[in-house]
Each structure stands twice: as structure tokens, then as C-alpha cells.
Specification:
- By secondary structure, this protein is an alpha/beta fold.
- The protein has a domain of 167 residues: TIM Barrel (Alpha-Beta Barrel).
- Helix content is 37%, strand content 12%.
- Strands 7-6-5-4-3-2-1-8-9-10 form a 10-stranded mixed beta sheet.
- Helix 7 packs parallel to helix 13 and helix 8 packs across helix 13.
- The protein is globular and about 70 Å long.
- It starts with 13 loop residues before the first strand and ends with a helix.
- Bound molecules: iron/sulfur cluster (2 copies).
- The site of one iron/sulfur cluster has 13 residues, from helix 11, helix 12 and helix 13.
Length: 422
């Protein structure tokens, strides 16, 4: 979901586009989005004229960076020619020296040598959905005939590896794997997957945006899962695997901030586009009342100026009472507004459904995160002082040499003094 560009009014904006609407060649039993049962029929891909219109408009607003995330259904069903057209239009309309980033979320089963060569050429970052070892994955990620897809996904990953494509693994955490953190981590290590992220499994009611998200796992189950996964990730103070949730926590302990929107203070400026051009502020807020317009009909300026957008952005900072005084607020920022049960006028809400999970993992990991982050910051500090400051330690009010962006006195000064580095 990441990426930046400067949108209308100086706002940064990334774009997630549902390339083929809900069309998908799998029929995962927990999927709340696709209803075609793994038999997509004629593919509803983004229309060429719409793609051209939007690219032109969007690129006019960029300021050095343009970020796209292509999702489905299964986006590879759009065909290679669609993506060739998309990257050609990006290049055609991007102002000179624009950095264009493309991310693609796929079930991995349709990846071929040709696809991998294309993805490498244009430096796509690929997210592959894989729920763990074969037995766990195949129980739920099945095709229209009910057959598991694990072998096909692993075959697709083989193509990515042979072409050196950057990819990460996205694992949905559901009833079938929430109590099996150790097996998942062992699987990632065995398969040499070095970047993974977890997504709790939502159920179909999630599309009713006037109700809070409903999940298959309980907050306690997810909390225990995160704690067990953390112990293995920590690896005696020398993590070998990048797990997005823990990496985000570590960033905060290193005086930076999380990159996951859920644990930042504000929802990012993002447009989620349906295949037909309908625009929404977030993937979790796709519903008529949150529609911002249609990029085939309305200009980006008009879409970003929609009062619906402002209403959406106001939700996350409207923290429930327990969050305001929570000791973990800097790590959590109240989670995701989609997971809060709101009053009718949306002025107040209960905490995020996963509040108990977050409290469990934050308390469980706190001491070890402090120690890990402290060591990393000092190493970074020393190395930067040597490389960039000719060995001279910054003044109290100068930016800290660890790179956090904070003043030295508000960042590493105490640690540096106790380690006798000054
Ligand atoms: S509503 Fe939730 S998922 Fe959407 S941008 Fe905000 S924090 Fe992220
Ligand atoms: S842990 Fe719970 S109470 Fe604390 S900020 Fe997060 S959601 Fe709010």
C-alpha cells in the first residue's frame, strides 16, 4: 500500500487499482471479495481509455515519485499486454526524473517465466499470498475444483527467484494457522523467504462498511500468535527474518515511525480504484457512502477535494478514550478505524477489535525491543559519526547521528553517554 507522490494541494498520494475487479482463478474459502468461485469467465480488466485518462491526470500531480499497487481478484488475469500498456503509459506521462514504483499482489499460481522477466525488467515488488506449509495452505486456498494451490504457488515463486524479482510473502492468519506460529516461521526459514507479513482473516461482513470488520480469529488468539512468532523472530537478539509487524515496532523503538498505515498517526493519502474507475479512500472503505467519484468522469482534483475524503481522514485521529491514555499509543496509534465499533454519528468508538492482541504483543516484546533497538541505534550512530561527521559527535540540538530525524538530546544522547561514546 505504500508509495508517495504529491497530489492536489500538495498532498502525497499512492494508487491501488483493482485490475480485474473480483475476477480470480482461485476460490479460497475465506475470500470476502471474489464471488466467481474460481471461474472468472470473461475477464473484466481496466479499460484502456480509462487507464490512459487516469495516468495522464495522476502524473500531472506527481512530484518526483509515482506509486502504484495492482491488486485483484487475481491481477495477472489482466494479461501481460495490460501491464505492458500500463508501464508504457506511466513512462509516457511521467514528468522527467519521476521515480515510478509498481507493486503487485498475486496468488502466484499464474506466474511464468515470461511474467517474471517482465516483473524484473520493470522492478515490480511482488506480494505472494501463501498461508504456510502445504497442508495448511491447501486446506483453504483452493481452486474451483477444490484442489489446493500450494504446488502451483511454489512453482510461481520459483520463476520469481530465477529472475531475481523482489517478492514477499503475505500470510492470512485464520483458524487453521493461528495456533501454528512455530510451523509458519520454520516454513519461511526452510524455504528461505526473508520478507513476510501477516493479515488477520476477515469474514464477508467486512464489505458492509457501516459495521465494524468481523474476523475469523479472536483478539486473544491473534495476540498469542504474535507473541509466539515474536519469540522466534527475535532469535536471541539477532533476527534473520523480516516480519513486517515486528519491523514496524522496531522502527518506533529506534525513534522512527511505523510504515504500516494501521500503526501511524494518520491514514495515508491513497486512492483505491475499482476496475471501473470508482475511487475510495482505502481498501477497507469500499462502499457507496465512501465513494469519492470515478476517475473516468471526475478529475483527480475533484476527487481529492471530496468532503467524503475529509470525513474519512478525520476518523483515525478521533481516538477512543482508552487509546488517548494508553501506554502503547506511540506504537499503536489506535490501530485501524475500520476495526472500531463507531457510534451512529461516528463521533466516538470502541478501541480496535485487535486492541487486546496489540496490548499482549507490546508488553511481551517491550524489553527485548528496547535492547535490540538500543544496540542498533548505537551502531548506526557510531557508523554515521565516522562516515559523515569526521568522528565529531553532534551538538545537543543537532539532528541525531542515528538518522531518526530527532534532535540528539531527544534521541541517543543518554545512551551515547552511558556507553561512554562522548
Ligand atoms: S482505514 Fe485502516 S487500513 Fe485504511 S488507511 Fe486507515 S489505517 Fe490503513
Ligand atoms: S493498544 Fe488498544 S488502547 Fe492502546 S492505542 Fe492500541 S487500540 Fe488503543
Amino acid at each position: 500500500m505504500g508509495g508517495l507522490c504529491t497530489g492536489a494541494g500538495g498532498r502525497s498520494l499512492s494508487v491501488m487499482w483493482k485490475t480485474v475487479s473480483e475476477d480470480c482463478n482461485l476460490a479460497c474459502d475465506y475470500c470476502y471479495y471474489s464471488t466467481c468461485g474460481g471461474k472468472p469467465g470473461k475477464i473484466n480488466r481496466i479499460d484502456s481509455a480509462l487507464l490512459d485518462t487516469f495516468m495522464k491526470d495522476y502524473m500531472r500531480h506527481t512530484d518526483g515519485v509515482a506509486a502504484f499497487a495492482w491488486q485483484g481478484g487475481e491481477p495477472l488475469l489482466a494479461g501481460l499486454d495490460f501491464f505492458e500498456e500500463a508501464v508504457a503509459l506511466q513512462a509516457k506521462y511521467a514528468p522527467p526524473r519521476t521515480v515510478i514504483s509498481n507493486a503487485l499482489q498475486t496468488n502466484g499460481t499464474l506466474l511464468t517465466d515470461k511474467w517474471a522477466a517482465f516483473l524484473k525488467k520493470y522492478r515490480f515488488l511482488v506480494g505472494v499470498s501463501l498461508d504456510g506449509p502445504k497442508e495448511i495452505h491447501d486446506a483453504r486456498r483452493v481452486d474451483a475444483r477444490g484442489q489446493g494451490s500450494h504446488d502451483r504457488v511454489m512453482n510461481g515463486i520459483g520463476h520469481l527467484r530465477r529472475h531475481g524479482v523482489d517478492f514477499n510473502i503475505l500470510t492470512v492468519i485464520h483458524k487453521g494457522n493461528v495456533s501454528r506460529a512455530a510451523e509458519l516461521i520454520a516454513f519461511y526459514k526452510r524455504e528461505k523467504f526473508d520478507h513476510v507479513q501477516f493479515i488477520p482473516c476477515m469474514d464477508f461482513r467486512s464489505q458492509e462498511t457501516n459495521r465494524p470488520g468481523v474476523y475469523e480469529i479472536t483478539p486473544e488468539e491473534y495476540g498469542v500468535f504474535l507473541c509466539e512468532a515474536f519469540d522466534l523472530w527475535y532469535n536471541g537478539g539477532a533476527p534473520e527474518l523480516s516480519v513486517r509487524f515486528f519491523d514496524n515496532m522496531l522502527s518506533v523503538y529506534m525513534n522512527g515511525q511505523a510504515e504500516l498505515c494501521i500503526h501511524r498517526s494518520a491514514c495515508p493519502d491513497m486512492l483505491v480504484l475499482e476496475q471501473n474507475g470508482d475511487a475510495f479512500p482505502c481498501d477497507f472503505f469500499i462502499g457507496e457512502e465512501w465513494k469519492l467519484g470515478n476517475v473516468g468522469v471526475h478529475s483527480l482534483d475533484d476527487i481529492l477535494a471530496s468532503p467524503v475524503y475529509d470525513e474519512f481522514k478525520a476518523l483515525k485521529p478521533r481516538l477512543p478514550e482508552p487509546c488517548r491514555s494508553c501506554q502503547w499509543k506511540a506504537l499503536c496509534h489506535g490501530g485501524c478505524p475500520r476495526n472500531r465499533n463507531w457510534s451512529d454519528n461516528r463521533k466516538t468508538s470502541e478501541p480496535d477489535y485487535f486492541c487486546a492482541s496489540y496490548q499482549m504483543i507490546y508488553a511481551h516484546a517491550d524489553e527485548r525491543m528496547k535492547s535490540l533497538a538500543g544496540g542498533l541505534r548505537l551502531r548506526q550512530f557510531e557508523s554515521n559519526v565516522r562516515r559523515y561527521l569526521k568522528g565529531k559527535v553532534p551538538g545537543r540540538n543537532d539532528p541525531c547521528a542515528c538518522g531518526s530525524g530527532r534532535k540528539f538530546k531527544q534521541c541517543c544522547l543518554d545512551d551515547v553517554q552511558s556507553a561512554s561514546l562522548v
